[in-house]
Amino acid sequence: MISLPAALASLSMLIAIGAVFLYAPADTPPQMGSTWPYVQRIFYFHVSAALSAGISYVLVFVGSVQYLRTRADRWDRFAGISAELGVLFSAFVLFSGPIWARPIWGVFWRWEPRLTTMLITFTIYVAYLMVRSYGEPGERTQRFAAVVGVIAFVNVPLVHYSINMWAADQQQHPVQVELDPAMQQTKLICYFAFACLYFLLFRLRLQQERQAARLQVLQQASHA
Amino acid sequence: MKALPGTWGHVKLLLRKDLVSEWRTKERLSPMVFFVLLVLLVYNFGFELGGAALWEIGPGVLWSSFVFASLFGLQRTFAAESTNDCLDAILVAPVERGALYLAKMLGNVLFLLAVQLLTLPLFGLFFNLTPGLYLLPLLPVFALGSASVASVGTLFAAMAGHSRLREFLLPLLVLPVLIPALISCVAATGVILAARIPGHSPAMWPPELTVHVGMLGLFAVVFTTLAWMLFDFVIEE
């Protein structure tokens, strides 16, 4: 039987896709060229994914600090799953950004500050996941991961600031424009769909991790 | 009876031990300096070095060779302590973990700074750099750059021995975290070297240098403090 979160995520994602392609108007500011009305629609998912990634990184930090304070396995799991989702959604952002950039800027990549910041943050959290997956399973690896989780999070504003300084002449990001009400609604529908998807993935991974931990306890008991 | 040393006393003792052992063996300094020379050679054949390229890629070449060499040096931070279980002996001694971090971190700063100062003439030679007093502001940039590398590098070096990735882990962690510091190092070095471009301001300390050096200082202070606080969690056995 399909679970409620799965049903909700699928349904809301379908509605979001419908809204992005059918409901949201193809608003074309004159300076943007003819491909803009189609390409611009990628932003609904691009921004939702970026938001999801950002929230994930906050959760990794919370989980890491809480783990170091309490040493409870559940906080370690919480941080680990958040990092996986953060990397997943960041990867989506890093894919959808260049897809948008190619028709608009003529190139896939131009070291635009926000995307560059996302790329560097992405590499830090991939390294975090490597600390987790290549460490000997156990308490020490959990501690190391938590320490990296704290360092990585504190680094994000520094990366953001220094990249902005470095790419001062690269500020090519579309400026904030007054959104049409239908566009605004589409954006919110996409946020909701991504929140549902996030919750679903988080819950699935959590169940998986709990099962794995339970299995390990059983295996140890059977060896004893 | 002599009073037991405080935290700073411990830091000094541990630092002295590392410096003396390095002075006797040259186990870290010589290979690092040689490695910088090799990287500079590799870059020479990768790009056309010398002449006009100095302003364009000089700072990047300089700092990337430093950073790669420092990764080798950082690997050795705790390696010497694994012989005869020296690290366990230090941990059993009534020494704060924070003192151990600070001693190792300061040791790394000194090693990195020494490598930079020893290899700057090589860099100058290959790039036809005119020697002069205008290079003096490189000193704070080198010092803060070394402190930035050592701040996170020392913390992560303590982890590296315990992963299946071994010597892979350190660069994977250090390089992405270090990028903000690296940007400032390269930018500051670029500003200093640009003093020799005809038509540029011959000022000893151009105002934009303050921004980059300030950013480096911020990075070094934030991550030294944070790593010092987190070191207890890394080393606790």
Outline of the structure:
Chain A has 224 residues and is mostly helical. Chain A has seven helices and no strands. The two termini of chain A are 37 Å apart.
Structural features, described:
The complex is a heterodimer of chains A (224) and B (237). Helix content of chain A is 80%, strand content 0%. By secondary structure, chain A is mainly alpha-helical. Chain A has one domain. The longest helix of chain A is centred in the C-terminal third of the chain and has 43 residues. The radius of gyration of chain B is 19 Å and the shape is globular. By secondary structure, chain B is mainly α. In chain B, helix 1 packs across helix 6, helix 3 packs antiparallel against helix 6 and helix 8 runs antiparallel to helix 9. Chain B has nine helices and no strands. Chain B has one domain. At the A-B interface, helix 5 and helix 6 of A face helix 7, helix 8 and helix 9 of B.
Features:
heterodimer; A: 224 residues; mainly alpha; 7 helices; 0% strand; globular; B: 237 residues
How many strands, which pairing sense, and closed or not: the largest β-sheet of chain A? none
The coarse overall form of chain A would be: globular
What is the general shape of chain B? globular
Backbone CA Rg of chain A: 20 Å
Helix content of chain B: over 70%
Number of domains of chain A: 1
The secondary-structure class of chain A comes to mainly alpha
Oligomer: heterodimer
Query: What is the makeup of the main sheet of chain B?
Result: none
Produce the secondary structure layout:
The complex is a heterodimer of chains A (224) and B (237).
Chain A: H1 4-23, H2 36-39, H3 42-70, H4 73-105, H5 113-134, H6 139-166, H7 181-223
Chain B: H1 7-25, H2 29-46, H3 53-75, H4 79-82, H5 86-92, H6 97-126, H7 138-160, H8 169-193, H9 207-235
